[in-house]
Specification:
Length: 200
């Protein structure tokens, strides 16, 4: 049985930049028809692909971290990989605006999946607000944890925010995430935007 995180441990910190705070459902609805995000889709698609890597979900005995292979666990893997990407992008001025577009693609995909699962229009906004709060909180927690010299804070953040199997090893998840963050740190902006990124 998966080990679920208590609801009161989900942080509610919002976005690190004013440009994130300005993003809203209304602004997306009013976006110009010629506002094309195609240039940022390779990075978003690659981020999702990396979030599906078996190493997140495999049991520790098989070399994995033990993230639960459930709807919740898969969402958590997506937010881990996306947060690592966004935290890398926020540190480079040329990538800040693209990071907003990638976040919009995340919002659109989550919105679409909620609707496909039968969530009605009247409540989808509430669900999306919660998902955005989760992502914002994890950005804050992982920003601090990845800046630390060891993995103690990172393991704590994973224990709080990730749906884990009973035999999971949060330290393995932390090592995989830190390795990914290190790879992103060494990648030039053009490689990141093109989605030329990989788990180590």
């Amino acid at each position: 049985m998966a080990r679920l995180r208590p609801a009161n441990l989900i942080a509610a910190e919002w976005w690190p930049h004013e440009s994130f705070r300005a993003m809203s459902f209304l602004s997306r609805l009013l976006r110009r028809k010629d506002d094309d995000r195609a240039a940022y889709r390779p990075l978003w698609h690659r981020t999702v692909e990396l979030a599906r890597d078996p190493r997140w979900f495999a049991a520790p005995g098989a070399g994995g971290g033990g993230v639960a292979d459930t709807v919740g666990g898969r969402f958590d893997a997506i937010t881990l990989t996306l947060c690592a990407v966004l935290l890398r992008m926020e540190r480079e001025p040329a990538l800040v605006e693209p990071s907003v577009r990638v976040t919009e693609l995340f919002v659109d995909d989550m919105d679409g999946q909620l609707r496909e699962s039968g969530v009605g229009d009247l409540v989808v906004g509430k669900h999306m607000g919660r998902l955005m709060s989760v992502l914002g909180g994890r950005l804050g927690a992982l920003r601090e944890a990845l800046a630390a010299p060891d993995d103690r804070l990172l393991v704590e953040a994973i224990n709080r925010n990730v749906t884990l199997s009973d035999d999971a090893d949060p330290a393995r998840v932390a090592a995989l995430l830190r390795g990914f963050a290190g790879m992103l740190d060494g990648a030039p902006a053009e490689d990141i935007l093109a989605g030329r990124i990989a788990l180590p």
